[in-house]
Amino acid sequence: TYVVTENCIACKYTDCVEVCPVDCFYEGENTLVIHPDECIDCGVCEPECPADAIRPDTEPDMDKWVEFNRKYSELW
Ligand code: SF4
Question: Most buried of the four, 42, 63, 64, 70, by CB within 10 Å?
Fold first, then answer.
């Protein structure tokens, strides 16, 4: 899965949301999140993010971000 990380905070761009083929972004007041079970790992959102906030969970230390994205995508 891809996940949204800290650089997303207070970012106003939503180009990532528009390109996602499965609509798995969820929007809160200050950040977006990706539902880890709905993301199909296509990667098209990653280059759309001007803040470089969207990362694959295969990078080191992403577990906390997967949990963050899961928690908030189920709340919002
Ligand atoms: Fe959506 Fe693809 Fe990004 Fe996953 S990797 S959030 S499916 S655009």
Answer: 70
